[in-house]
Amino acid sequence: ILEAVAKLDGSAVKVEFKENWGQDVEANNKRAEEKSEIIHSSYQGLESGVHRVNYNSTDWPVVIAPNWEEELKGVVWLRKVLEIPKEFKGNDLRFDLGRMGNNATVYFNEQELGKANAPHFSEFTVPGKLVKPGKNVIAVRLAHGWSNPNFLGPEERMKLYAPSGAVLEDLAGPWKYNANLEPALPEVKGY
């Protein structure tokens, strides 16, 4: 260990340097690359069919969005089942999930609608060909590469809109979630 003493505003500050600091930085950079690879390339949840309408998520825990009771970390899949009235079959719908984690992919009835990068507000149009009477599913893969929190909201933005612009369903409230479908994100130090 090397030591250095510096004067800042008249007070001495002792700074210690590890002999193997270069190895620590190199290992941290490797973990950062692994983290980025998981965030941008690992879609094990998708491969297991999480985005499918008939996927069984009954054993998943519930989280209240946007007011998470616990902070969800890493790569998280969320699902919400919607009941669409038959008069909206074949109509374009629109929904807003507010601000999402800095890497989000959104699906509606098994089709990818798009990606979002935070902290921007995210609105999606659902093409009428995807809208079915009865059970419909929004699935969201959220990943956050910085401090790892995931989020949606604020609550007043989280809505599903009919073609007229009227609120068809409030999307705030309970969502099923699973944070164990993708590999855990390695811890990366922010030097």
Q: Strand pairing plus helix content: what structural class?
A: mainly beta
- What distance separates the N and C termini? 18 Å
**Treating each run of at least 4 consecutive H or I residues as one helix, how many helices?**
2
Average pLDDT metric:
84
Q: Give the DSSP E fraction (strand runs of 2 or more residues).
A: 35-45%
Radius of gyration: 21 Å
How is the biggest beta sheet arranged?
6 strands, antiparallel
Number of E strands: 12
With strands numbered from the N-terminus, the spatial order across the biggest sheet is 3-12-4-9-6-7
How helix-rich are the residues, as a percent range?
10-25%
Which geometry do the CA atoms define?
elongated
Low-confidence stretches: none
SSE ordering: EEHHEEEEEEEEEE
What does this structure look like?
By secondary structure, the chain is mainly β. The mean pLDDT is 84. It has two helices and twelve strands; from the N terminus they run ββααββββββββββ. The protein is elongated and about 70 Å long.
